[in-house]
Amino acid sequence: MRNGLYSQIVLKKDFIFERKIAALTEHELHMHDLLEVSILLENKVRYRLSDRDAAGEPGDIFIFRPFEAHWNLADSEDSPAVWIMLLFSPSVVRALPQGCSLLAPFYTMEWNPLIPSVSEEARLIRQAACSALQEQQKMLPGWEMKQFLYMADILVQIFRYFMLQQSHERQAESIEGIVRSIEYLLGHFAEWIDMTQVIELSGMKKTWFYKQFHMLTGLTPNEFVNKLRLQYAIHLLKHSDKTVTDIAFECGFHSVSYFNKLFKDTWLLTPRTFRNHAQ
User: Fold this and answer.
1) How many other CB atoms sit within 10 Å of the CB of residue 21?
2) Looking at residue 75, what is its pLDDT?
């Protein structure tokens, strides 16, 4: 919706695996509120984002952050790119122990979201994605549970690679502290947030915490929380019959007028108009 890029994608379940093919055809960038992982299988691809392009080789893994405008393009007209797309709702991690921490890589800006094929994590992610597709094709008893386990393994491998890269670039204590704070906010964003408690959880001094948090996420903690609340509001507007007022309060906003203003500032539409377009 912002700049006409927002795509309405409604999942029948919390996550899907799909085999995709990309030709060398220019498209408009699009974005959505789901989290996305691209596992490149064959030929080269260009991952086009709003601020840069990234080249992908077979075996590479690319992470698309929520609300990040993007598109996949084959690198050669004669060689269509083949990849596996994993789309999932952030809520899917609730069933996993400490699952919210696995979302940290999708909400941080200060790292290259391309996991190269030469890494062990990329190899394991590709193996899990291919196995998940095989389960979907065979549809043996319990195949959906097996897919869920493969998806969980993919998220763990992404998180391990992310933490490894961060520890190479800065003090491990700092990044671990910020990840702890991100995990807490992901799990409690709909509640009243005591930022003093969040800072204490990080183990940092206040000034250093705010500086490190902004460097990692590109947002202040309050902006980060509002982004999560808006993401949850979009989910409720799409998938529930609750009133806009009820949604505002359920998402953690204490003022309906502020919720409406923030939503419109972000998506150029009121929540009610958004819901009408989503139906």
Assistant:
1) 13
2) 75
DSSP string, the chain: -GGG-B-----SSSEEEEEEEE-S-----BB-SSEEEEEEEES-EEEEESS-EEEE-TT-EEEEPTT--EEEEESBTTB-EEEEEEEE-GGGGGGSTTGGGGGGGGG--SS--EE-TTSHHHHHHHHHHHHHHHHHHH--TTHHHHHHHHHHHHHHHHHHHHHHHHHHHS-HHHHHHHHHHHHHHHHHTTSPP-HHHHHHHHTS-HHHHHHHHHHHHSS-HHHHHHHHHHHHHHHHHHH----HHHHHHHTT-S-HHHHHHHHHHHHSS-HHHHHHHH-
Q: Which two tokens stand for residue 171?
A: 């003090």
Sheet of strand 45-49, all strands in order from the earlier edge strand to the far edge: 53-56, 45-49, 70-74
Fold of 2-169: Jelly Rolls (2.60.120)
Contact call for residues 29 and 46 (beta carbons, < 8 A): no
Contact 5, 45 (CB under 8 A): no
| pLDDT averaged per 10 residues, the chain (length 279) | 46 82 58 79 82 85 78 78 89 80 81 89 97 95 93 94 73 71 87 94 92 85 91 85 96 95 90 84
- Going by their DSSP bridges, the two strands 53-56 and 70-74 should be labelled as unpaired
63: which residues sit within 8 A by CB, 6+ positions away? 36, 37, 38, 105, 106, 113, 114, 115, 158
Domain range annotation of the chain: 2-169, 173-279
**Class for the domain spanning 173-279:** mainly alpha
